[in-house]
């Protein structure tokens, strides 16, 4: 039976993926499909991956700074993660004279490693299914009552547990609240920067290549965990010592081939694989397009000036990258959902479920009703959130109105004021008020045209005409203190922010009279009164229905192996090294090489420049042990692992549990995998360990780091 299913699926998808992976899979590491993993080629056992009794691979996998994943690759606590995960820290150590982003950074020994206050790594020491305790006494509850009881039970559970003072417990819902899991977490706080390649390697291809295969980015950076003398977590101190891990990953430089078994171990952030067709349809036809349309306008306006003016380009590089990242992902997501016929497939799936279990019909009908009811409000929420996020004037107005409220509520003490001033100074450092006025005017104009009149403040029609909007916002911006162009007591936020805040009464008076502040105030209060409550109330109902729908899917579809949607907890996904056939007559190979970096090289370009030294190494074919059978150095590869945001920096391991790659992206045709995994189109993208070691050894001359590792040849 099993074999037959595999055959049917391989006929459909053109290659063999076993049954549990048909819908993707981000598995809880205590509940692995060991048999299937072994059938696919895994040689180690599930106990080698997760074991609380003795060292196992999980002891080498950490959540990096709350968002990414990282792994330990030496007995001295050496950490590997993505360049884009370490980006802020690399930037923080950079100055104009010593620009680590452009030049890269390599400590020559441990004393040169750079501390990063605030950066943390989290180890998961244990995982428990605590559904019974947490769901106790909740059978007949719903809505707010249910949430309150759950929170009460979670608190009771936490206090009943004996943990060390350096540990904490986090309880997370799975399957939309049908189950609950508890995680024991240990957080280390002294994390030092060890090495990072220059951006022209670590961010090679930048936004043009982002979410795209074939890829040639050396997206890695290295840190080290430090601990106190007892190897326990401690705040930064020069007396701290390199952390001794329970386990570290051996690093492989063996050749790979298509169909090799791989698994990825990390902290995927969020997926929604079990939504009804109606929800997917709304995302695809309403929500994503709305968010994309606002960012289209913002990015285009930024890009024009960034190309024309270097100072602007530098100021907006990081902001642009972050707006562009999800903008591009949503475009890929919509295309992928359309191409994979996701809504129709979901509808058919719902019919199959109903034919087996008629009780599901009322749940789906009710979901359809609620989603339709919520739809205009959700759409307005999407527009409003994106408008405020992309119009920096409105972001500033929001911050200043928070200030006014705090002062009036007598909550603005010395410390809060210092925090606000330092946040604002940081913001103004990378701010171009004229450019912002143009972006703000254009996104407001889009909002005025796209949103239904009942969601807009009175008199907002005047923004419909984009030229009128540009003129009006520019005039207001020119005279406003919050944009830094207007003066208060002779000072601007640039020239003397202390002076601006010193005269509290004058500032508050000024802010209350500022038409930009009033504009934002109107927008926000209109949003709150017309939309916010409605969306939230309906969402609470949808959540209740989704919980029921999830439970019904699980009890009805006995052939399907379910995994809980990603929620930033530790997961394992597995698959095979694979290329793909995303379009008619287009075939992607699974592996890129250094020759491809050279092919993409555009001298002096901010995305595709290549360091001179790398070109020299390439010309001299000075590849050491890091080339493969082709004679070239492998740079990146794709596989069928089911990953999402948060899996950045996750280790990719081979059948023996050796590190073969570092996850950093997905291919564009498969970005809909957060909503609808399609085995034919979905591929994760990893940097090859051969390229990482080649850069460390040959490019950076940092052999001392390689010597710490256990290399598998
Ligand atoms: N797309 C990858 C991820 O979602 C990489 C993002 C960083 N790179 C960039 N060009 N913005 O995080
Ligand atoms: N780049 C993503 C991250 O930062 C991972 C890519 C993805 O979303 O699959 O987590």
Strand count, sense and barrel status of the largest sheet are: 11 strands, antiparallel
Structural class estimated from helices and strands? alpha+beta
Query: How many structural units, i.e. domains?
Result: 3
Distance between the termini: 39 Å
Helix percent band: 40-55%
What compounds are bound to the protein? Answer: arginine, glutamic acid
Low-confidence stretches: 1-18
List keywords for this structure.
eleven-stranded antiparallel β-sheet, seven-stranded antiparallel β-sheet, 713 residues, binds arginine, binds glutamic acid, Thrombin, subunit H, 3 domains
Kindly describe this structure.
The chain has 713 residues and is α+β, with helices and mostly antiparallel strands. It folds into three domains: 2-120 and 192-268 and 571-712, Thrombin, subunit H (Beta Barrel); 125-188, no CATH class; 277-541, no CATH class. 46% of the residues lie in helices and 15% in strands. The chain is built from 24 helices and 22 strands. The strands form four sheets. Strands 1, 2, 3, 4, 5, 6, 7, 8, 9, 10 and 11 form an eleven-stranded antiparallel β-sheet that branches. The protein has a seven-stranded antiparallel β-sheet with strand order 14-13-19-20-21-18-17. A two-stranded parallel ribbon has the order 12-22. A hairpin with a 2-residue loop joins strand 15 and strand 16. Helix 13 packs antiparallel against helix 20 (515-556). The protein is globular and about 70 Å long. The two termini are 39 Å apart. Mean pLDDT is 94; it is low at 1-18. Residues 84, 206-207, 210-211, 321, 325, 645, 648, 665 line the site of arginine. The site of glutamic acid has 10 residues, from strand 20.
């Amino acid at each position: 039976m099993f074999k037959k299913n595999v055959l049917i699926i391989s006929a459909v998808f053109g290659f063999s993926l076993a049954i549990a992976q048909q819908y993707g899979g981000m598995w809880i590491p205590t509940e692995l499909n060991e048999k299937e993993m072994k059938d696919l080629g895994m040689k180690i056992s599930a106990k080698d991956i997760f074991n609380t009794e003795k060292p196992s691979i999980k002891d080498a996998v950490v959540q990096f700074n709350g968002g990414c994943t990282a792994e330990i690759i030496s007995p001295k606590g050496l950490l590997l993660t993505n360049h884009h995960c370490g980006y802020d820290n690399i930037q923080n150590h950079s100055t104009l004279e010593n620009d680590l982003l452009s030049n890269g950074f390599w400590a020559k020994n441990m004393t040169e490693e750079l501390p990063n206050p605030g950066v943390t790594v989290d180890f998961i020491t244990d995982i428990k299914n605590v559904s019974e305790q947490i769901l106790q006494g909740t059978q007949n509850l719903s809505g707010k009552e249910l949430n309150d009881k759950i929170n009460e039970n979670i608190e009771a559970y936490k206090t009943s547990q004996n943990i060390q003072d350096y540990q904490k417990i986090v309880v997370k819902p799975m399957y939309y609240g049908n189950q609950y899991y508890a995680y024991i977490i240990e957080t280390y706080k002294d994390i030092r920067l060890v090495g990072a390649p220059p951006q022209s390697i670590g961010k090679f291809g930048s936004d043009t290549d982002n979410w795209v295969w074939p890829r040639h980015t050396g997206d890695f950076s290295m840190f080290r965990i430090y601990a106190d003398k007892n190897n326990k977590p401690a705040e930064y101190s020069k007396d701290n010592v390199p952390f001794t891990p329970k386990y570290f990953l051996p690093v492989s430089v063996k050749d790979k081939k298509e169909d090799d078994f791989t698994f990825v171990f990390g902290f995927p952030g969020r997926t929604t694989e079990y939504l009804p067709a109606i929800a997917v349809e709304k995302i695809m036809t309403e929500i994503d397009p709305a968010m994309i349309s606002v960012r289209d306008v913002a990015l285009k306006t930024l890009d024009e000036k960034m190309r024309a003016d270097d100072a602007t380009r530098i100021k907006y590089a990081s902001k642009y990258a972050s707006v562009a990242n999800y903008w591009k992902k949503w475009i890929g997501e919509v295309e992928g959902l359309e191409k994979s016929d996701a809504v129709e497939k979901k509808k058919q799936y719902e019919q199959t479920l109903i034919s087996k279990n008629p009780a599901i019909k009322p749940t789906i009908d009710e979901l359809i009703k609620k989603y339709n009811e919520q739809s205009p409000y959700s759409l307005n929420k999407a527009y409003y959130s994106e408008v405020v996020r992309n119009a920096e004037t409105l972001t500033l107005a929001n911050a200043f109105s928070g200030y006014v409220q705090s002062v009036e509520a007598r909550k603005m003490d010395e410390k809060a004021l210092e925090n606000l001033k330092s946040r604002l100074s940081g913001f103004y450092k990378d701010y171009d008020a004229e450019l912002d006025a143009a972006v703000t005017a254009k996104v407001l104009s889009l909002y005025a045209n796209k949103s239904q009149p009942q969601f807009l403040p009175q008199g907002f029609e005047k923004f419909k005409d984009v030229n009128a909007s540009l003129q009006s916002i520019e005039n207001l911006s020119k005279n406003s203190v919050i944009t830094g162009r207007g003066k208060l007591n002779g000072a601007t936020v640039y020239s003397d922010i202390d002076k601006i805040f010193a005269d509290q009464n004058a500032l508050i008076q000024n802010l209350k009279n500022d038409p930009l502040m009033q504009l934002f105030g109107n927008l926000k209060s209109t949003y709150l009164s017309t939309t916010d409550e409605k969306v939230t109330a309906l969402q609470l109902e949808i959540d209740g229905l989704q919980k029921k729908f999830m439970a019904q899917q699980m009890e009805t579809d006995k052939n399907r192996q379910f995994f809980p949607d990603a929620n930033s907890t530790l997961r394992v996904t597995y698959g095979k090294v694979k290329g793909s056939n995303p379009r008619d007559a287009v075939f992607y190979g699974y592996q890129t090489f250094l020759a491809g970096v050279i092919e993409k090289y555009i001298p002096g370009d901010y995305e595709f420049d290549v360091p001179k030294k790398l070109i020299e190494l390439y010309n001299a074919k000075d590849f050491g042990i890091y080339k493969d059978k082709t004679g070239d150095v492998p740079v990146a590869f794709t596989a069928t692992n089911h990953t999402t945001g948060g899996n950045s920096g996750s280790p990719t391991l081979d059948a023996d549990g050796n590190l073969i790659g570092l996850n950093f992206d997905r291919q564009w045709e498969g970005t809909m995998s957060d909503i609808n995994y399609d085995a034919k189109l979905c591929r994760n993208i990893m940097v090859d360990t051969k390229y990482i070691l080649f850069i460390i050894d040959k490019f950076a001359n940092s052999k001392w780091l390689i010597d710490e590792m256990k290399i598998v040849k």
